[in-house]
Specification:
494 residues; Protein-Tyrosine Phosphatase, Chain A; 24 strands
C-alpha cells in the first residue's frame, strides 16, 4: 500500500515527501523500525516519541507520523503531520492492516473486576461449539493456542490491529478483548469495530490516573458507543445500573444482567459449595439450571455476562450451559491448589477492595473453620484502597498476613502498615512479613484442620515490580513448593 492510498483514508494536517512510497507496517518503537515501517512519534506521560524520529529514520523508516517535524529531519523522510499522533496511530494501523476488526466478531469486556474470567468463559463456550476464538487481556494474547506476552492489559492500538490481522490469518472468527479504562482514555481501541460490549462492574481503582470515580466511569462508558450489535451490562452494580439507563436513553442496544435486579438475563436460587455454584437462569423467558465450577456470586455474574454475549452471537443456550458446566476455570482465579494437607489453599488475583470482598464473601458461604488471607498492595498507586482492603481482611478473616506486592519505589513495610490501619478496625490478629515467600509459608504453616488460606493479589502475574527492576515471580510455583516443604516437615514429625 502506498502513502497516497493511506492518506485518502485518514485525517491529517499536512504531508511532505513522496506519496508513492510503500508502507506495510507501523510501530511506536524506533528500535523495531525497518524498511516499509511508519514510525509514530507518541507523546507520553514520561517520554516523547519525537525525540526518536532521527533514530527511526536511521533504522530505515519509510514514513513518520508525528505532531511536529524536527527541523534537522525535514528533508530526511516522508512526514505525515497530525493533530494527535496517538489517536491517529489507531486509525492508520487499522488501514495498514486492512481493517481486521471488520472481519471479526470483537467482544470488548470492561470493568474493574471480572474481565479476564469473562473472556475465558466466552473462549470456553466458543471452543465447545467449534468456533475459533482468540483472547487479548491481562494474561497476554492467545491466538490458536499460541501465547504472546503483552505489557498492558489492552495493548497499544498498532499492536491490537496487528494481532487482529494475525487472527484472521489463523481463521479466527471471534476475538474477546479486555478493554481497560486506560486504553479507552488513550485511544488504544480507536479504529476497532466492536460487535458487543460487556460491563462487569466499577469500583475504586486507578484513581492515580483518573483522579475521580466520575472520570473513571466516563472512560469506561466510551466502549458502549463503539459497538455495532449489542451491550451486556451488570445492573446489580451501581455504575452498571446508571450505564444501562443512559444507554437506553441514547437508544443504544443494551441487555441487563444481574442477580438482585429484575434483569433481562437473571440468575436466582444460588446454591454454593467449594466445588462450584448451581443457579436458575432466566434469559428472554427461557428458564434453565446452570452449574459453574468456580463458586460464588461473582462467578455467577461473570457467567451471566458470558451467557448473554454468546446468546447474542447466536449460540444455542443448551450448548452454552453445557460448555460452562465443563469449564474448569481460569488459572489463578479462585484456583484451589492441590495438596495433602488438611487445609485448603486458594490462589486468586483479587487486588482491589471489591475483588477481595467478593472472594471473602464466597469463602464465607462454605467455610466451616478459620479463614486466613495473605496479600499486599502496590506501591506508587492509589493509596486510598489500602486501608479499605485491610478492613475487609479484618472483618472476614481470622488471621491476616500482610506482605509485599509490587512495592515499586515505596517501602513495602510502610505499605503494609497502611493496610494494617484498616485491619485493626476489626482485629488485631495480623502479621507483617515483607518477604512474600516467607509470608506464603507462614500462612500455610499456621493453618489447622479445615482452615482455608487465600493467597491474594499476584496470582499469575509473572513478576514483582521493585521500581528499578521487575523480578520474575511465580506465586503458584512458590505456593506448591511451600506446601511440599510443610508436608515433608509434617511427615518427619510423625
Amino acid at each position: 500500500m502506498n502513502i497516497s492510498s493511506v492518506l485518502s483514508q485518514i485525517e491529517y494536517k499536512n504531508f511532505s515527501g513522496n506519496k508513492d512510497t510503500i508502507i506495510d507496517n507501523i510501530t511506536y518503537d524506533s528500535r523495531k523500525v525497518s524498511d516499509g515501517f511508519v514510525f509514530v512519534a507518541v507523546k507520553g506521560f514520561i517520554d516523547d516519541g519525537h525525540k526518536y524520529i532521527k533514530n527511526a529514520i536511521t533504522n530505515g523508516a519509510s514514513a513518520i507520523l508525528c505532531e511536529e517535524i524536527p527541523e534537522d529531519c525535514k528533508a530526511l523522510c516522508n512526514f505525515i503531520v497530525v493533530e494527535n499522533a496517538r489517536k491517529s496511530m489507531a486509525h492508520l494501523a487499522s488501514v495498514i492492516y486492512d481493517n481486521p476488526s471488520a472481519n471479526l466478531d470483537v467482544i470488548g469486556v470492561t470493568g474493574t473486576n471480572g474481565k479476564t474470567s469473562i473472556t475465558y468463559l466466552l473462549n470456553a463456550i466458543f471452543e465447545h461449539v467449534n468456533k475459533k476464538s482468540a483472547t487479548i487481556g491481562t494474561l497476554g494474547v492467545v491466538i490458536d493456542k499460541e501465547h504472546v506476552k503483552t505489557e498492558h492489559t489492552t495493548p497499544e492500538s498498532s499492536d491490537i490491529q496487528y494481532l487482529m490481522n494475525k487472527m484472521l490469518q489463523k481463521s479466527i472468527e471471534l476475538c474477546m478483548m479486555e478493554v481497560s479504562s486506560h486504553a479507552l482514555e488513550l485511544d488504544r481501541v480507536s479504529g476497532t469495530n466492536f460487535n458487543i460490549g460487556i460491563f462487569s462492574n466499577l469500583t475504586r481503582d486507578h484513581l492515580d490516573f483518573h483522579k475521580t470515580m466520575e472520570n473513571y466511569y466516563q472512560a469506561k462508558k466510551k466502549l458502549f458507543y463503539l459497538t455495532s450489535n449489542n451491550n451486556i451490562v451488570n445492573v446489580d452494580d451501581e455504575y452498571g445500573n446508571r450505564l444501562y439507563k443512559e444507554l437506553k436513553r441514547d437508544n443504544v442496544n443494551v441487555y441487563s444482567y444481574g442477580i438482585d435486579s429484575d434483569a433481562d438475563i437473571r440468575a436466582s436460587n444460588l446454591r454454593t459449595t467449594i466445588k462450584g455454584t448451581k443457579f436458575d437462569l432466566n434469559i428472554s423467558g427461557i428458564k434453565k439450571e446452570v452449574y459453574v465450577k468456580t463458586p460464588g456470586k461473582f462467578s455467577v455474574l461473570n457467567s451471566l455476562a458470558a451467557i448473554g454475549s454468546a446468546y447474542c452471537i447466536g449460540i444455542d443456550i443448551d450448548l452454552i450451559i453445557e460448555a460452562l458446566g465443563l469449564y474448569k476455570g481460569v488459572d489463578g482465579r479462585f484456583e484451589i491448589i492441590h495438596s495433602n494437607l488438611d487445609s485448603t489453599v486458594i490462589l486468586d488475583f483479587a487486588h482491589t477492595p471489591d475483588g477481595l470482598e467478593k472472594i471473602m464473601e464466597t469463602v464465607s458461604e462454605f467455610a466451616t473453620k478459620r479463614k486466613i488471607v495473605m496479600f499486599g498492595a502496590g506501591g506508587d498507586r492509589d493509596i486510598s484502597r489500602r486501608a479499605p482492603m485491610g478492613e475487609i481482611a479484618g472483618k472476614y478473616c481470622d488471621l491476616t498476613i500482610l506482605t509485599s506486592d509490587n512495592p515499586r519505589f515505596e517501602n513495602p513495610y510502610d505499605i503494609c502498615e497502611e493496610i494494617a490501619k484498616g485491619v485493626k478496625k476489626y482485629s488485631n490478629n495480623y502479621k507483617i512479613i515483607v518477604e512474600r515467600d516467607e509470608a506464603i509459608y507462614y500462612a500455610i504453616k499456621e493453618a489447622k484442620f479445615g482452615d482455608i488460606i487465600i493467597l491474594a493479589g499476584k496470582s499469575t502475574e509473572p513478576y514483582q515490580d521493585l521500581g528499578i527492576e521487575k523480578v520474575p515471580y511465580d506465586e503458584k510455583s512458590i505456593a506448591i513448593k511451600m506446601i511440599k516443604k510443610i508436608e515433608h516437615e509434617l511427615e518427619k514429625d510423625k
